[in-house]
Amino acid sequence: MEFLNWVRGPGLEYATVIFLVGILMRFLEMWLIGRKPDLSRPRASASRAGWRAVWRRSLPSEGLMKNSPLVMIAGYVFHIGFLLVLLFYVPHIHFFKDVLGFGWSGLPTPVINFLSILTIAALVALLIHRLIDPVRRFLSTSQDYIVWAVTTLPVVTGYMAMHMDVMPYTTMLALHILSVEILMVVFPFTKLMHAFTFAVSRYYNGAAMGRKGVQL
Amino acid sequence: MSPSLERGINAFVNQIDGPIASYFNSCVHCGMCAHACLFYTETGDPKYTPIYKTEPLRRAWKQNFTFWGRLLSKLGLDKKITDEELAEWETLIYDGCTLCGRCTAVCPVGNDITYMIRKSREAMAASGHAPEGLKMATTRAIEIGSPMGVTIDTLKAQIKHTEKETGLTVPLDVQGAEYLMLLSSAEIAQFNEIIGAVTEIFDRAGVSWTLSSTAFEATNSGIQIGSADLAAELVQRIVDSAERLGVRTVISPECGHAYTALRWEGPNLIGRSYSFEVKHILEVLDELRADGRLQTSGRESARVTFHDPCQLVRRGGVVQQPRSLLNMVADDFVEMPDAGVMNWCCGGGGGVSANERANPLRAQVFSRKKRQLDGLQVEKLVTACSNCRNMLEEGLEENHMEDIEVVGLTELLAEYLPEKK
């Protein structure tokens, strides 16, 4: 119980501060570098193409589906599954309501169960693929595996807290919250930052191509 | 640390901007860029994965622009960039990349990897780790005015020859002409029919144009090797001549990177916008077509396809014009698989063709173009870049496919001009 109180109280506070300050710091690091204005005469609107790219690159392209079907499909399943479980599991919504002051309606628990299993399966598939695919294995550094672990742990511990009797519920719940806190602390200092910077990168890329009149 | 390495590392740091920081933050090592790169798909070697080519740049970013990276490198816990590493990356950055831009087009998080490699080349050149062939081409461009050593005398001889053949005057240094036409060395030295083709087309269309004796070379080895100051010097020569002649538009010839250099990088290299417009020859021809000033008679009966030069199409935005122009004259025009903005590079762009060390690798990756052509059964392969044209001719010859004729689009159009009234 003491452990649970710590992770729910001071632990969560520390993690939240590191998470938010860390992300702010990383964004400042990026934006303070700045960039030079492009003096060439644009052929078309850069900003329109930029915003378009932010959205368009979320869609599966034919080429990527053909060349990397597993990464594409497992990638979609894991990202969507993770977000749905995070945002629409009823106890999670209660938590957000406590913090934010407002809530929303959740998904039925059996759906959340199913999504959790799908998400874990997709994460495991992605890990195996990272280990056996020559390109991904070659590119991977220890950070790729650490980030995989800190992303997977909250889903696994959450599922275990709901369904398994390997240890007392309060201990399991405390471990679940702790795993989320680890994810939050690691987040700003690793490639997990892509969850925010992807939009910035897509915008820059789309704008650079778009001002030349190339729509991708 | 050697002075050249220090120069190189400083150059890496100076190249980094907000977008590059965002790109490095966003990469999740998904590996999808590998499948977009012909150097990976045709060799199967993961070291050619595009994002891996930016590793020295990433380290420079991490050690200078991130909290943990700065801390670790201050404590001496992070690996410094070494000359040995840069020597190793030289072959990845120059031999194993044509700056074709396919990786940039597919990256799911939106990283402009081509831009990062282009930027990396600035530091590689500053540190002395650039291929001999490209260094020599750049020196010739600065000293003689052409990477191939072509001089104004060669051009004048070609002009004389063209005038004799066409019976038309080829304008040189005409003050107040509307268009200034540039050429590439390869066109002057090898594919000189282009001068006659342009002369005839412009004559029929009533275009006021000129060549310039102080700016006839459009190519820019500076942007290939990654030397912004030399690239700027080459652009400045064109800008000065164009402004002296008072032209409204400068025409970039059938050459991919020349277009990128002058149209997109140029104003940024010299630090100001131009008083004239820059258009690719195909853009000008397509405007003439739309205005009804470019007319053709007769049709090409051979089965033809179009090879999209990367810098013109994917990196340049001239996509529809070659199609509209080809359809004017070709009855049987078929597209290659992945045609248009996702077309595959000929393998020799981005300075690779000037780098002799890369020849075997270039020949190996041509297998992609070969596969694209297999099954199309074309008799003519039309393109709009004299470097692509050279690479295609060589590749076809090595693969015993010489029965496919490689032609420039401008020349093809000139073959179908109506008889002079």
What's this, in brief?
Helix content of chain A is 77%, strand content 0%.
Care to describe what's here?
The complex is a heterodimer of chains A (216) and B (421). With 216 residues, chain A is an all-alpha fold. Chain A has helices spanning 2-33, 46-56, 62-67, 69-88, 90-100, 109-132, 134-139, 142-163, 169-186, 194-210. Chain A has a single domain, classed as Up-down Bundle (Fumarate Reductase Cytochrome B subunit), CATH 1.20.950.20. Chain A is 77% helix and 0% strand. In chain A, helix 1 packs parallel to helix 9 and helix 4 (69-88) runs antiparallel to helix 6 (109-132). The longest helix of chain A is centred in the first third of the chain and has 32 residues, at 2-33. The N and C termini of chain A lie far apart (54 Å). The mean pLDDT of chain A is 95. Chain B is of the alpha/beta class and 421 residues long. Chain B is 52% helix and 8% strand. Chain B has helices spanning 3-15, 18-26, 32-36, 38-41, 55-65, 67-74, 83-95, 102-106, 113-126, 132-143, 152-166, 185-189, 193-205, 221-225, 228-245, 256-270, 281-290, 320-329, 359-365, 367-373, 386-398, 409-415; strands at 179-181, 209-210, 249-252, 277-280, 300-306, 330-333, 380-383, 405-408. In chain B, the strands form 2 sheets. Chain B has a 4-stranded parallel beta sheet. In chain B, strand 5 (300-306), helix 18 and strand 6 form a beta-alpha-beta unit. Chain B is globular, with a radius of gyration of 22 Å. In chain B, 57% of the residues are buried. The mean pLDDT of chain B is 96. The interface between A and B is large, with 56 and 60 residues.
